[in-house]
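SAMPLE LOG
Freezer: B-3
Tube label: C17
Construct: single chain, 113 aa
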Amino acid sequence: MMVCRVEHNRRRLRMLVHVCESRFERGRGLLLRPCPDVHTAFLLRNCRAVHTIGMSYPLDVLFCDSSGRILRIVAGLRPCRMAREQRARQVWELCAGAVSHWGWRVGDAIQPC
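STRUCTURE (predicted):
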């Protein structure tokens, strides 16, 4: 897992993203980790679906295409739920409320830098 900064519509944010690259890292994501703050995210590459089974807190989830364009936003995905987007190639997991904090919308471009 590598840690990078985040760029939103070509503007750097004061945020860190943990890039999960292996199958194990993608499968784990935020599972069994404390709830992150609004300045932390987990990026799951080669992923189209996430679940919150075993989680104790809700998540904001972003589904993006391969270039980082946001296709769908699921705000406040509660524990023991699942969300998927067939067109997605990467998924961002964030604490609930992070999407509204950063002002992200469908169509925006986000990526680690």
